[in-house]
Design goal:
Layout lengths: L16 E4 L2 E9 L2 E8 L4 E5 L4 E15 L2 E6 L3 E4 L5 E16 L7
Antiparallel strand pairs: 1-2, 2-3, 3-8, 4-8, 5-6, 5-7, 5-8
Length: about 110
């Protein structure tokens, strides 16, 4: 398995994946300790509740999302961000079409 992206990553050359209905993602840059992923959501798309051992910090680049982290729900919009501790249950519903920029540590080997 490749454990490092190239130094320069161009959107036009990076493949899109469709992990679930209404959601597309691009793995942009990574090494063994860090990963940056762009995730595009259509309005109404659901990021099903899940958990993983990675730390995650996410920036809301556009749109509006209802996030659930543990037992807490909040609505976040463009310019907001959130943090998810390892092994914490989380998910989202896209209220207005948008883009999330996810970072993971360590990298998500399951995305490669």
């Amino acid at each position: 398995m490749k454990t490092r992206s190239t130094s320069f990553v161009y959107e036009k050359d990076t493949k899109w994946e469709n992990p679930s209905p209404g959601i597309r993602r691009q793995v942009m840059a990574y090494d063994g300790q860090l990963m940056l992923v762009k995730v595009c959501f259509e309005k109404g798309a659901i990021g099903s509740p899940h958990e993983h051992y990675h730390s995650q910090a996410t920036y809301v680049a556009s749109g509006k999302f209802e996030l659930q982290i543990g037992n807490e729900k909040k609505v976040l919009s463009a310019g907001d961000a959130y943090y998810i501790a390892p092994d914490e249950l989380h998910g989202c519903v896209c209220l207005e079409e948008g883009i999330l920029i996810d970072t993971f540590s360590p990298m998500r080997a399951d995305f490669l």
